[in-house]
Amino acid sequence: MKAQATVFILLGIILLIGGAIGGYYITKTREQRTETLLPKISELPTELQPAASYYQDCIRKVARDGLRKLGEHGGYITTKGLITNPYEPTGKNVNAVNWLPNTEGTAYWHYLSSENNCEKTGTCEYSSHRPELSDIQKQLEEYVNSNIEACIQNFNLPGYKIKPESQPKTNVRITPKTVIFVVEHALKIDKQGTPHTISQFYYEEPLNLKEIYQLATDITNKQREDNFLEHKTQDIIDAYAGLDSELPPTNDIRIGLSAPVFWTKIEMIKAIQEMLKNNIPLIQVLNTGDYNFITAPAAVKDKQLYEKTMNWDNAIMLQNTYNDLGADFLYFDSYTPYFDINCRGQVCRPEGILTDWFPIPFGFQRTRFAYDVSYPVMVEIYNPEAFNRQGYYFRIFIEANIRNNRALTAEYQELITPPIQEESEYCEQTKWETKTEITLKDGYTLQPINDAGLVYECGQEKCNIGKTTNGKFEGKMPTCIGGTLTALHQAYQSIHYPIDTDTNTKAELEMYSFKEVEIDAKTYLIEKSGNTYLLDSQNPRELHKNEEAIITLTRQEQTMQEPHSTAGRVKGDKFAQKDELSKIRLLPGKYEVRIIATAKPEPPWTIPPDNRCYDTGWFSEDCFDIPKEEIRFDKDKPFPTGDTTLEWEITPNMLKNAKKATFKYIGYRLQELPNKIEALEPMGKQEELSTIHANKLEPELE
Length: 702
What we know:
The chain is of the alpha+beta class. 21% of the residues lie in helices and 36% in strands. Strands 1, 2, 3, 12, 13, 17, 18 and 19 form an eight-stranded mixed sheet that branches. Strands 27, 28, 29, 32, 39 and 40 form a six-stranded mixed sheet that branches.
């Protein structure tokens, strides 16, 4: 038995060593294969070296520009597929955040894709908009292909003329420490009447993008598994909340006679924003190069407690080590968190009992508050040595969610980083056998679609099949059961069609082009009648001149359709200059529509402190101000005047000739209400009234 066990142990060691050697040779072979593609400038004829160096410098400029854009947007060069909502950054289907005002979106790598109140229906789901490394490679390739020719148009070396003789085709490889760009681009270079041709160019950027991507993934997985942001949020609330604080405590009691305590939700949101801004940046990653142990100042009495709080309570540990990278966590108070607490209306107060039995009055105040909070956190990963010590930044967002004073958890699903797939023999056209006929038509006109690209995906393999001519493709495809054909055209939304190619096959498919339409918005106003709020459902009003509405549409996913979302903005000021957000791009389908309206009052609208007195018994009363400080809304602090969510189905016939879409929502105007804290009460009526009057809110296409 011992001999047999020894044999198995030796066999295992041999297999382990063999696997390691095999992996080494596979990696080495790939590196050598890349090396054979690299034209060495020093090996070119002397007269061509200046032109080749100029082109290589163009690759460097375009490549770095693409890499910077990737870092700004969480792994995306284009923000076309990113959905943001500056007024509700944690809203349903929002997959990115405007990390500063007037910036494009940066992707969420971990976020709650359901409604913020999903815990009430038990339908909470988390998602990630992290791109795969292979997608990042493809984006870089497309970016270089699209921008390299603009760079060489400025070619101005004396005695040289350059003329492209082919379209550029870029191959990008992300290695552990570098990003390699190999560009196939036939250039005819004329040097004082003597023509030459160069077909390949090479540039290697010493940037550890793969390591940066992995650190971002590790931090995201840490949040998905351990909910460290939620625990941090609970610590912040526990530390700052109190009967004499800006936040009410989750559980507290005060015995004895004292002035009643009150809080307003709008002041609580402001306090939480300030606390997050000051505390989230304290989070550090132990395994990174910029980790800094914080030493207690000399004036601190309990140095051990101080250092524990500032260091270990704010530190997260990862399995991997990243000595060349730094990681910062940031929360900006321009982000409006989702916030709710279990009290009716805008004013929250403790439970209280007061008796004035002679001769000794007695009373107590007790708080039992449950917090619901969601907010985005930006994770900024940086390499200070990159780009000749200019530094490189890669930003992502992750979202924190607590409900009822606890982390809103979901089943942990680790984000893995699959290896980048190499080309295989599967996509060699000489080995394809299945005869296929694909017909593509315009879904509105039924006219044939020419020059549509066809891609067939089978498992991990993805092959370019060809293009349509006169609306048809006739040719061969690789054999597969359970594959997917994708049709792409710059004027149409891509479609995906499940197709088996184990036998000869035919398919007729329809594609729909985007229809760009102007948008408008109107509002049904909530009005106060005595102590009751009613909706004027007969007279939709134009937006107030200081009001604007952000409209987002998210198409529900269906077979063959890619996800589609679009957003626009309607300004109440009819003299305001229109911009690209005054139109939206629509496709047929079922949509979820979200309308959030805000107002920037001029002059500012305020709720001043209102002194109110309450009888405390024993022939006395206590008075206090509510709110404690003036609440002000102006051009810098807009007020949410409307919030409506609805479903809308658009048919091809409805959209075919549409030029304009008009949306309606339920809102109210502060200027028409008294300057009291009760003026904020209609905020809680909008959801209920939107359900009751859903038929009035159907958007209109014309």
